[in-house]
């Protein structure tokens, strides 16, 4: 990912722009962590702005309490668009990093992560979009997919509808609660011995 980050405050006073470019790898974001990522077709689009992102923002603290280290929203947009969208959505800004305090916005401007996940689609005839991400959400546990929810049962090129039924925050919360409950049952089993 190529994103924008705030430069240190002592340098920002002399700088023309308080942001600089930074390359962030998937390892930086996911190695040794359990994260939730949800991807959507585009910043500023109706469902993404009215429901998808706000749902995760509202559930952020609850997800963290269920053993999630971080929550990321990914879209095939550039860093400038993602930042402005977050500000327009009223997300609280992290003044040290330049991202946001709760849900972190990830620009996948070159569509590299999206292609790597096998979630690339094109909606050129339906919406005038070039290559974008299909709508999905996932739990990634130490660089491995623990659970994934893909809308519409799979990718549809030039889809007429934009399905939004399983990648929402409510579905993710239900999964996280059930996973925690199952883990608790395993740990409380009389024959359970922690790995050493």
From TrEMBL:
One of its GO terms (molecular function) is thioredoxin peroxidase activity. Residues 3-181 form the Thioredoxin domain. GO terms for biological process: cell redox homeostasis; cellular response to oxidative stress; hydrogen peroxide catabolic process. PROSITE patterns: THIOREDOXIN_2. It comes from the Eukaryota. Pfam families: Redoxin. GO terms for cellular component: cytoplasm. The active site is at 48 (cysteine sulfenic acid (-soh) intermediate). InterPro entries: PRX5-like (IPR037944), Redoxin (IPR013740), Thioredoxin-like_sf (IPR036249), Thioredoxin_domain (IPR013766). Keywords: Antioxidant, Oxidoreductase, Peroxidase, Redox-active center. The keyword Transit peptide does not apply. Thiol-specific peroxidase that catalyzes the reduction of hydrogen peroxide and organic hydroperoxides to water and alcohols, respectively. Plays a role in cell protection against oxidative stress by detoxifying peroxides. Belongs to the peroxiredoxin family. Prx5 subfamily. PANTHER family: PEROXIREDOXIN, PEROXIREDOXIN-5, MITOCHONDRIAL. This is Thioredoxin domain-containing protein. The lineage of its organism: Eukaryota, Sar, Alveolata, Ciliophora, Intramacronucleata.
